[in-house]
From TrEMBL:
The lineage of its organism: Bacteria, Pseudomonadati, Pseudomonadota, Betaproteobacteria, Burkholderiales. InterPro entries: TadE-like_dom. Pfam families: TadE (PF07811). This is Pilus assembly protein. Residues 9-51 form the TadE-like domain. It comes from Pseudoduganella albidiflava.
Length: 154
């Protein structure tokens, strides 16, 4: 056996040892990148929803027959989230009061001149092995919020 043939076998063995570790690190980096992307995307969506909420408008509600302000604000958040809103199934709270879809109503975003604190609690399922063990139940839980004063709408 020549020295060259022994070295090529060593290269394959070294690659077989290093490649799984390299792939796990690479996947972990992608996962952390997705977590940052989701957090920033939802922060943007909440800010856009709060900016829309302070106007008192309802024209974004998909129900054209009976448009509601709360549905229009949630639709603005959904439209600004690049599809993440539906994937995360977030919990909305306004001024510290948690709302469930059945309890949504026009009064939840306050009246003219009132300050609103719109907060959304989300959880992202971590799919990379070993990284998911760092999070409770394998979920990255985060909250994003925006605070604004309602305009004096009618």
């Amino acid at each position: 056996m020549s020295i060259k043939s022994r070295q090529s076998g060593a290269t394959v063995v070294e690659m077989a040892i290093v490649m799984p570790v390299f792939l796990l690190v690479l996947l972990a980096l992608v996962e952390f990148g997705m977590m940052f992307f989701v957090t920033l995307t939802m922060q943007y969506a909440v800010r856009e929803g709060a900016r829309y909420a302070i106007t008192g408008q309802a024209d974004l509600d998909p129900n054209k027959a009976s448009q509601q302000r709360h549905a229009a604000v949630i639709q603005k958040i959904r439209d600004s989230s690049f599809g993440m809103y539906d994937r995360l199934a977030p919990a909305i709270s306004v001024n510290g009061t948690s709302y469930k879809p059945a309890a949504y109503g026009n009064a939840m975003f306050g009246g003219a001149g009132s300050v609103i604190v719109l907060k959304i609690d989300c959880s992202w399922t971590v799919t990379t092995p070993f990284v998911s063990r760092a999070f409770t139940d394998g979920k990255y839980k985060f909250a994003v919020a925006a605070t604004m004063r309602n305009e004096f709408f009618q």
